[in-house]
Amino acid sequence: MSVAFISHPACRLHQMGAGHPEQPARVSAIADQLHGRGLFDFLVHHDAPRATVEQLARVHPREHIEQVSQKSPEEGLAYLDPDTAMCPDTLEAALRAAGANVLAVDLVLSGGSVRRAFCNVRPPGHHAERDRAMGFCFFNNVAVGAAHALEAHGLERVAILDFDVHLGNGTEDIFRHDERVLLCSSYQYPLYPDMNPPSVPGRIINCPLPAGSGGGVFRAAITEHWLPALEAFRPQLVFISAGFDAHAADPLADLRLSGTDYGWITEQACQVANRHAHGRIVSTLEGGYDLPALATSAATHIDKLLHA
Ligand SMILES: [Zn+2]
Question: What pTM did the predictor assign?
Answer without folding.
Answer: 0.98
